[in-house]
Each structure stands twice: as structure tokens, then as C-alpha cells.
Amino acid sequence: MSVDASHEHGQPTTGGSNFLRNLIAEQIASGEHTGAVVTRFPPEPNGYLHIGHAASICLNFGLAEYFQGACRLRFDDTNPDAEDQEYIDSIQADIQWLGFEWDGEVRYTSQYFATLYDYALHLIAAGLAYVDELSPDEIRDYRGTLTEPGKNSPYRDRDPAESRAMFEAMARGEYAEGTACLRARIDMAAGNINLRDPVIYRIRNKAHHQTGDAWCVYPSYDFAHGQSDAIEGVTHSICTLEFEDHRPLYNWLLEHLPVPARPVQYEFARVNLNYTITSKRKLRRLVEEQIVDGWDDPRMPTISGIRRRGYTPASIRAFCDRVGVSRSGGTVDAAMLEHAIRDDLNKNAARAMCVIDPLKVVITNWEAGHVETLTAPGHPDRDDMPERHLPLTREVYIEKADFREEANKKYKRLVLGKKVRLRNAYVIEAHDVVKNEAGEIVEVHCTYDPDTLGDNPADGVKPKGVIHWVSASHGKQALVRVYDRLFAVENPGREDDLLDGLNPFSLEIHPGCWIEPGLADVAAETRVQFERTGYFVADRYDHAAGAPVFNRVVALRDTWAKIEQRGA
Fold first, then answer.
1. Quick one: 216 exposed, middle or buried, by C-beta within 10 A (0-12, 13-18, 19+)?
2. Does 10 map to a domain?
3. Whether residue 488 is found in the same domain as residue 558
4. According to the annotation, is 344 in a ligand binding site?
């Protein structure tokens, strides 16, 4: 069995609008922007990336690729309380899996801590920052509301020399957490709350995963963001729309600090999927309460989960391209993502047969012990995929759902006294069944017509349909997991309890499946189409030669409406 030949990192050829790409092209054409386009992807290393981050990765790295510029990877590691090397490693792996390479070495905001500290001293000396001893709750109260201005802190007019001495003492660890902070001195009556003397440094008496015990004060994201962009020579700092109100602060800091460059911030609408949550807090709950089997559970919207589910990098990039980039927020139908992988695998996944719910069929006029090796195409439209070899024997397995003792004319599968074709093999006719003590059918007896193989079947033979099968003696057993959407409600985040929206059919485990013998030894992450059933992938971790484990990636067609009806 050949590994699927999907274009793992191929560029999508069609897509939605991308206002940022159009904007940058106009800037270059008009001479407003000269030189290289430099973007950055600045994740916080405090969790696993999800499908929304994938869109941001594709945007930032994609713009750099399109304009032959550079995209930097910078970890925004300003909060030692929640960051971990595990997340750093996973984020780098996710970006590389999607097919992108960052410019130069991996960067960290923590590399600029000394420079950012000097920038803070610069603001203090200019009377544009002060050490405040209000408590966090008092700062919040003094800040005002959207309709009422804030109040000046009693420490706002502190002498710059005193603020500097206190800030330096804070940096030496001489203050407890929460007893003081450094605030920019802007305008407590500003209509934009982000300009009401924002906190730019906090005390954290905790070791940092990159700098160890070197620092006891850490910059806020708002303070570190623009200055790090400037240090790295970023030209287009692209953020999601929730940072639009932070742009005036971004610009104010750049204007009042001796930074080496003047990056410009642009905002775009994040990608939100229905039937999906991306909140780190809620995803963590699913993991901690063991609703899912970890951050890479194939039902999770994390990139590691999507990868394990069997999605390809090309399908994720195609999805992001089709969604496009705009400034108007909204929710994208999850069916678009499923369509992207279905379209990819339809073209690139090899075909195979798997019987998930087996029922034994005995071909009574087949010679015992005789094996006939048939052939089938690896892919109906791909000559580069080798033919499959299918051993046909006296006993085979078919799906239980593919047989009925009696059925109406709409049922196009095996029925007593009726004929059906075994896929890529002969026509068989059922004539008897064997039942157990409970009255359940455990075996179907059939005869086959030896003149019905190939392109010239016997005249007058009209089977009702075609069903798939696997040899009972030459097939291999496998564990198959049938995954579906984790949530059965369109907006699970609005449920009173997140767990109320769970889809009870999100995972069905089938330990006794039968697969073609050629499937048993394929490599992990091999993607195939189980004919008539769906697209599946050999599990990234659990699959092994001789002990195959396959996960369903997606059904052959959109079956979600039926699933919703089943759960009603």
C-alpha cells in the first residue's frame, strides 16, 4: 500500500479576498512602502495552537512568502507564570508541519528584556512613566469606565528620580508582587481606556524559562509588543481585531521611545468555527476532566489534534485561503474545513477496503482452501499509485448493514435470493443464513457466479449493487476509531455548561475491524479512503506494523445533518 501522495505543503490555487495582501501591494506600487516586507508570528508559549492560530500563521508567513520578504517567529514570553518549554516545542513543530520556515533563529521577547528595561527608564526620565503603589484592584477602580473618565493616581506626579530608584529596587527583587508597578503617564481622561496610564511593568518574583532568575520585573504585552517589532525591523505588525483599540498605545510608545524602526500595526478578523471552541481555558477543562484524551485528541481544534485526526497541511492552508482575510468578524461553517480535507484526500489518498462491523459470508461453491488474487486500482484517477492485490477466499467479511433477509427495492445491497457484486470481484447471491441462539445472523451463505469477473460479465446478470469485503483468512484485524465533531451545538461557548453541548457520537471505537492485508504495515500518518466508508489515517502514535490503528478523518460526504437528527 503506497503512502498517500498529498501535496503536503502545496500552495492553494483559489481563495477568498485578502485585504492585507491588496493593501501591501498598493503600498509597494505607490512607493509608500519600500524595501522588504517583514512580518512576525508572536505566540505566547502558554498553550497549544489551534485552528485560529493556523489562520494567523498562514497569513503572516503567507504574506512574507507572497512578497518575497521575511517572517520572524518570536515567542511573547513576558509571563513566566504560565509558560513552558513544552509549548515552545509544540508551536515550532506546528509551524513546520504547516510547511513554513521562519526567518533566522527563533526569537524571544525575553531576549530584549535589557533593552525594554532601558526603554522603561527612558520613559521615567522623560516624565512619561511612574511607579504606582496602588493595588491592582485600586488601579482598576481608578481607571474609570467607557462613559466616565479615570482618576489620577496619587503617585502619578512622583518625581522621576524617585520612580527610577523604586523601579530599580523592584528589578532587584526588593518589592513583593502586587505592591508596586510601573505605569505609562498618558491621559486618565482619554476616550480610549488603553491610554489611561496603562501598566507597563509588573513584579514577578519567579524564575523565567529563558532568563532564569535574572529578572523580577516583567514587561506587559502592550509594552513589549511594539518595541520588539521595532527591534526586529518588522514592517507590518498584524494582529487580530481585539487589538485595534490597543493600536493608539502601540503608536504612542513607538513615538516616545528611541526605537530603531517604526512598524505599523494592522488588524484582521480572527477565524471562528461553529461547533468549535478555541478558548484555552475551556480546552484545558476538556483535557483536565478527561473529556478528551489530551491536547492532541483528534476531536480537539488544536493543530496537533487536527494533525492526528488526519488533516493535511495543504488542506489547512487551502481552508485558510478560501476563508480569506477581512476586517469583518464572523463565524465560518465547520463544513468548509471538512470540505478542504475531503477535497485533498479525494485527489490524493489511496483506496482500500475495511469492514468495520463484520458479518461472515461463506461462498458455498468456492473450493475450500482456494485463494484467487484479484487486483484493484490504488486510485481511480492516479496512475502513479500501484495496484492493490486482493486475496479472495471461501470466507469473507462484509458489513452487517450490507445484508438483510428482506428489503424493499431501494435497498441496493445483499438480500436473500438477490445478487450483489463484491467490489472488484464476482457477483454473489445469498441463499441462506445461520443464526445464534439469540436469533442474530452470524453467517450468510452465498454462491458466486464465476463468469462475472472483469469487464465482460455473463449476460443477464444484474446485481442490485456493489459492496466491499475482506478475506476472512487473509485480511488483517485493526482497531478503527470513528471520530466526529466534539460538539453537537453550533455555538458551544454559549452553553450554560460547556459539557451540555457535547456530541455523544463524537467517538465510536471498533476493535474488531478487518482490512486489506496491504494496509497492515503502512506507515503512521498514511491517509487512505476506505471505500464506501470515509477517509482514514493511520494513527500518528498508536499505529504500528502488525497492530494497525486507523482514525476517521472525515466522511465521504457531509453527513452532519443526519448526525444532528440522530441526536435529537
1. middle
2. no
3. yes
4. no
Do 296 and 267 have their domain in common? yes
Exposure string of 1-37, with b = 16+ CB inside 10 Å and e = fewer, is bbebbbbbebebeebeebebbeebeebeeeeebeeeb
Question: Is there a single domain that holds both residue 484 and residue 554?
Answer: yes
Q: Is there a catalytic annotation at residue 44?
A: yes
Task: Judge whether 87 is annotated as a binding position.
Answer: no
Give the three-class secondary structure for 54.
Answer: helix
Structure-block grid coordinates of residue 348: 490524493
| Residues paired with residue 199 on neighbouring β-strands, in sequence order | 183
The answer to the question of whether 76 is labelled as a binding residue is: yes
DSSP letter (8 states) at residue 492: G
From the candidates 44, 244, 429, 525, give the one annotated as an active-site residue. 44
Catalytic option among 151, 156, 204, 280: 280
Is residue 86 marked as binding? no
**Same domain, residue pair 94 and 243:** yes
Total count of domains within the chain: 4
Q: Would you say 160 is a known binding-site residue?
A: no
Q: Tens of pLDDT along 14-29?
A: 457 899 999 999 999 9
pLDDT digits (tens, 9 = 90+) for 312-364: 999 999 999 999 999 987 899 999 999 999 999 999 999 999 999 999 999 99
For residue 3, tell me if it sits in a domain. Answer: no
Which one of the listed residues 21, 143, 204, 270 is annotated catalytic?
A: 270
CB 195 within 8 A of CB 186: yes
pTM for this predicted structure: 0.90
218 annotated binding-site participant: no
Strands 466-467 and 331-332: unpaired
Tell me which residue range forms the domain holding 457: 357-468
